[in-house]
Amino acid sequence: SHIVAQQRNIFLIALHALGVSFTTVNRWENGKARPNIRAMKALKQYCEEHDLPYEPLEKSWRENRIQEGAV
């Protein structure tokens, strides 16, 4: 959907600004790895500083962590 694509674009722009490599993002998107807490905190700070929505990203991250049993 348009909203999902928009959220993904925001996520990718923020990660690029934070210096996260394409390879890392690709691993996250393919479920081979997950952002660690430090990456999520940096992403949250970036979103807050640029008035971007962080909550959908956090929700997705938390849901994935719960499914993995890592909470």
Write the layout of secondary structure elements.
Blueprint: H1 2-17, H2 22-29, H3 37-49, H4 55-68
Question: Can you describe this structure?
Answer:
By secondary structure, this protein is mainly α. It contains 4 helices and no strands. It has helices at residues 2-17, 22-29, 37-49, 55-68. The longest helix is centred in the N-terminal third of the chain and has 16 residues, at 2-17. It is globular, with a radius of gyration of 12 Å. The chain starts with a helix and ends with a helix. The mean pLDDT is 81.
Percent in helix: over 70%
Hey, roughly how much beta strand do the residues contain?
Answer: under 5%
Distance between the termini: 29 Å
Alpha plus pi helix count: 4
Number of strands: 0
Spell the H/E element sequence. HHHH
Characterize the largest beta sheet: strand count, sense, and whether it forms a barrel: none
Q: What is the CA-atom radius of gyration, in angstroms?
A: 12 Å
Can you tell me the residue ranges where pLDDT is under 50 for at least 5 consecutive residues? Answer: none
User: Mean pLDDT, rounded to whole units?
Assistant: 81
User: Which structural class fits the helix and strand makeup?
Assistant: mainly alpha
Form type: globular
